[in-house]
Amino acid sequence: MIKRVxxxxxxxxxxxxxxxxxxxxxxxxxxxxxxxNSDVLRIFKHIYQINETPTLEEIVKxxxxxxxxGDSRFGIKMEAWTLYGNIDDVGDYSNVWFKSKQDYTDEKxxxxxxxxxxxxxxxxxxxxxxxxxxxxxGLVCPYTSILYRIKTDHEKGIFSKYE
Length: 163
Fold this sequence. Notes:
Elements: E1 12-17, E2 22-32, E3 38-44, E4 48-49, H1 56-60, E5 64-70, H2 72-77, E6 82-86, E7 97-101, E8 113-117, E9 123-125, H3 127-132, E10 136-137, H4 143-152
Parallel strand pairs: 7-10
Antiparallel strand pairs: 1-2, 1-6, 2-3, 2-4, 3-5, 7-8, 8-9
């Protein structure tokens, strides 16, 4: 039988098991209408021991490792992470930039990038500008790629060249 999962909402915090002894947390902070209305997730840096039970306030005060786009609900459905709780504090993401390349197979072309803020207009930019802004890859990632990056701290496949 197919597992039914309740809709996720902004502020939801998810626990992600990264090994038999460790876990990390991430939070659904916004929906990005300019990127398929996908969930914007902030992944926190701190690695907890599996038996630790931090408060939501402690979790969201942690440093942010990175932001990514994905489907938080599908990750629950596939048992990649579990809902830990919900908190209104989603941090300040007003200066978070994302980047996307027209053709990821063409590594030499540094002038086919677009940058944007959540819900904002896509702006043409070159690779130098995306690095200056510390823009995150703006791809809508499947839950498997999100889980892989949380566990390994690397993008999967061809996209690893553009971190």
